Amino acid sequence: MAAYFSPEEDFAGLSFTCPGGNPRDAVTASGLLAVSLLDIAWRSEAVRQLLDTSAAMVPGLLPAIPGDAGPREAPDEDLAAVDPLWEALLHMPGAGTATASRLLARKRPRLCPVSGKGRHPGGRRARLDPGGIAHVPARPRHTRAEIQAPRPPPAATVTVLRILDVAIWIRHSHSRAASRIRRDSGIPEPGHGRP
After folding, report:
1. Could you give the CA distance from residue 61 to residue 49 in angstroms, rounded to a whole number?
2. Confidence at 141, pLDDT banded by 50, 70, 90
3. Claim: this prediction has a pTM higher than 0.85
């Protein structure tokens, strides 16, 4: 976790949440840049659609998504509010599930996780719930503290959901970057040792 959020390392880290402003109900060029740091290549048509305030498609849908609760605590209405924007993003040129999840995570970091391609079977609750957290029986309060324990000081303002996103990525991604973090930290490769 310390390596991922270190400004000296070559990971998106805090650059995903921090560059430029992040107005609650608008998509900005700095927001698209932040999303691109998570291996997203924007097509020019999609950028024009997202930044064209005269069309107002995305800004018109963002205010309906509360995002004050996490996917486990959010009522069904809050989760349902994500669907119109999710569908609109998927219809943009070159945008897929990875693109949609990353933009939503930028705009509603407490509610929407960063996730990869094809990780959304089972509808909206599965899409907004990395690792099936909402379906795990309630645990003692100290679990949240355990999740936050590896949070390095530079990531003090990062949401618990983002900490989980990064932990899941580090543990399960087959990318060279995640493999390097595992090797440097002594974490077994996926499929070896304990999960």
Report:
1. 14
2. low
3. no
